Amino acid sequence: MARILEGHPARVSFFFGGDAGGKAEVMAIRQGRHGAALMALAMLGFAVLNGLPERPAQAGMAGKVSSAKVIAIDSMASAIDDALQTASRVGPDRVLVVFDVDSTLLYDPLGGPQLDDMKDSEPEKFRSVERALMYLKSLAPTEPDLAGELARLDAAGIATYALTARGEDMRDMTLRELARAGIAFPRAPECGPPLCVKRGVLPPDAVLAAAKEVLGEQELVRLGFGKGRPVGVSDGVMNAAGLHKGVMLRVLLASLGRDFDAVIFVDDARKNVDHVTDAAAAMPQQISVFHYQMRRPEPPVPQSTRNQRWETATGAICLALAPEWCGQSATGEVKGEPDRTRASQPR
């Protein structure tokens, strides 16, 4: 499409689609209105003969099939610089930056127990244990000046969100620890339909229905998304309860009531990076995925020390707060003293 602007010299702008969704501009020396028009038509004809792609709608992004680029980083400044540079091209109101929480924004400086076996074999029990631990833990930002880095996005007018695998039952301690670290998401758009059809916890069937509406059943099958879980979205934090982050990101974007041209996603887990990359194949936005690996303090806390701390904490919990976590006798009665041999295996 050609556009002729008034002024001297005349400017004839040609918009080309393609991967870059860019704009090629040709300057014509003004020879009167007719001369500029002829120049525009000649250039347009040349473009058509050489296969002019259709211009994408909505600021050059909607309708474009995206492919995410994955960048490994160990400093949050890299992702934030990328967001600021993108905003300079498309506008700050057209950029959304989405962060994971655990080991991306916050981490446990004291270390915790190794619960991977329980997470894989007994996921329901794992979530209850994880929730209890989170109430007791004090987390720290992954970088000393992380709050200051994130403030650069807010100052530039860029919206931010957190997309965490935590469940909605962990919202209170999540917001508590984010606030302790000086982290907030003041420009996060409110979530509405199709996902947020009501306040509070969104039931699994509502989450699945929203995913089907946004992505379609065929795309959900491709991504391996078959069922929902209770999800919550408020205060700029989506608790996705371990669901496929690529699917949940797309559902969130469709529920914010705004169009974004570019999305920057930051996560430490390779699985989440891969899921968002897979989902980006059918997304209209420009997607940049940053695989974040924090610079952990040296020396790291040995696993033996973590286990010892966990055993001590579990013994205290058994005695004071939750005796049902302790070992039980053959008759099922709770013992008066915690079973130290089983203290590292919360029930």
Write the layout of secondary structure elements.
Elements: E1 2-5, E2 10-15, E3 23-28, H1 32-49, H2 57-61, E4 69-73, H3 76-90, E5 95-99, E6 106-107, H4 116-121, H5 123-136, E7 140-141, H6 146-155, E8 159-164, H7 171-180, H8 204-215, H9 217-223, E9 232-234, E10 237-239, H10 245-254, E11 262-267, H11 270-280, E12 286-292, H12 303-320
Parallel strand pairs: 4-12, 5-8, 5-11, 8-10, 11-12
Antiparallel strand pairs: 1-2, 2-3, 6-7, 9-10
Helix pairs in contact: 3-6, 8-9, 8-10, 10-11
Describe the structure.
This protein has 347 residues and is an alpha/beta fold. Helix content is 39%, strand content 16%. It has twelve helices and twelve strands. The chain has helices at 32-49, 57-61, 76-90, 116-121, 123-136, 146-155, 171-180, 204-215, 217-223, 245-254, 270-280, 303-320, and strands at 2-5, 10-15, 23-28, 69-73, 95-99, 106-107, 140-141, 159-164, 232-234, 237-239, 262-267, 286-292. The strands form three sheets. A seven-stranded mixed beta sheet has the order 4-12-11-5-8-10-9, with helices on both faces. The chain has a three-stranded antiparallel beta sheet with strand order 1-2-3, with helices on one face. Strands 6-7 form a two-stranded antiparallel sheet. Residues 1-65 and 328-347 have low confidence and may be disordered.
